[in-house]
Design a protein that fits this description.
about 80 residues, alpha+beta, 3-stranded antiparallel beta sheet
Length: about 80
């Protein structure tokens, strides 16, 4: 298992923490700050989710006028962690 603490840029969230299991699943996903309801929901939905599938779904997602989002930053963190 690999633990990751990622500092996102361009979003309200200040830190994204998660583990990637040996079989490429996301666990213990946590967002520090940001939109609490949405980010708690994302964390629950992605628990046990395949890392590559999450990247495919979340990459490029934007937030309002921003060119990125917390979900996009998570996709970037997952890519870097692999």
């Amino acid at each position: 298992m690999k633990h990751v603490d990622y500092k996102p840029t361009g979003v309200c969230c200040q830190k994204i923490s998660f583990d990637i299991t040996d079989d490429n699943k996301i666990t213990n996903l946590n967002f520090e700050r940001g939109c609490p309801g949405n980010l708690k929901a994302i964390s629950k939905i992605l628990e046990g989710f395949d890392c590559d599938k999450a990247i495919e779904i979340l990459k490029g997602n934007t937030c309002g006028p921003r060119p990125t989002s917390c979900a996009d930053q998570l996709a970037q963190a997952l890519e870097q962690a692999k």
